[in-house]
Amino acid sequence: MQDEAWHEEQQHFQAVLQAWSDYLPYSLHMNNARRQSLYALPQAHQALLQGLHAPVPGPMEGKPAQRGFRAKLYEIDDRIRRNADVLEQMAHFCHSFLGILDESHQAASGPTNKVSERDQDRVRTAIKQMARDWGAQGAAERERVYQPIVEAVLRRRPPSEGRPPRVLVPGAGLGRLAFDFAQQGYCTQGNEFSYFMLIPAHFLLNCTQTVHEHTLFPYIHSGSNWHTSADMLQPVCVPDVLPSVLDENTDFSMVAGEFVEVYAKEEERGAWDVVATCFFIDTAKNILRYLEVINAVLPVGGLWVNAGPLLWHFEHDPDASVELTLEEVLELLPHFGFEMEEQRTLEPQTYTGIPNSMLSHLYTPVFWVCRKVRDHTMAPAV
User: What number of other Cβ atoms are within 10 A of residue 257's Cβ?
Assistant: First the structure.
């Protein structure tokens, strides 16, 4: 059974690496579809689009701007290739990630003929997430939601010269919130399930020698809602802070695996002083099990700080999923051994929002600080 699970993990990891490899042909194909749409227009209309005077910037500062719709398509091709270069570096660095796949098996199957749109959407999301978590353009988003979490912990459990408080960050994504806690002096562990997040997190945290080392173009995959071509084609340089600035004695780690499977274990009981969740609890198929595990990993008196919406990720999944309102979640908290210390609604904000776009999806996240006041016994698995 263990060998079967390990083989399944290998396949999952290899599929993600394949998605990085497929990004280039898939994205170029999608841009070629735009080009074909241009060529399908009447010649007079093509000429009008080619005669547009709005500047189309090149990727390098100082390169002369081009003109016309066709020039924009060529510049998008260029940005796709530059993104693919970074993804290739990432895949090469992470091919032996967690010892799951050694170099001799890297992308063994080669590019697939049929690319999953779902997986390519995850690749595009990962690129935008890199901009949010590790680019200067994402600083405002991070500040709106990460800062309240960090400040709440600093006020209640400041790092001391003795043993620093242990902070667990489930659903850590690319690891920025966990890194921010580590930078404040906490013993921090991020936990993430998706390899689409784990691979770029591993790459940025462990394969970065300089600030702004890698240049990405996260916003080129849609032609809608732009004011200018420059907005669509803008670069984002990551990381905006060097992960190696952490003191060598800082206890900071990232753990791969599903939250309940990893932290429902006996050795994790009472092991963490703080659990910090950000845009995470709505990833649960069964939120009650999440509440049980959060209770279990905290000692009595431990803190749970949460910020995020309730966009239940598995609402339309064929597997069983329970979707609760905020009112229902709050009513459950005392049952699971938590006492509310602070609760408020954060300001409306985007998540991986696109600068200067005509369209923004806004969340109004709830924020709370709970203290564990008693242990809760986990319900047996069905």
Answer: 14
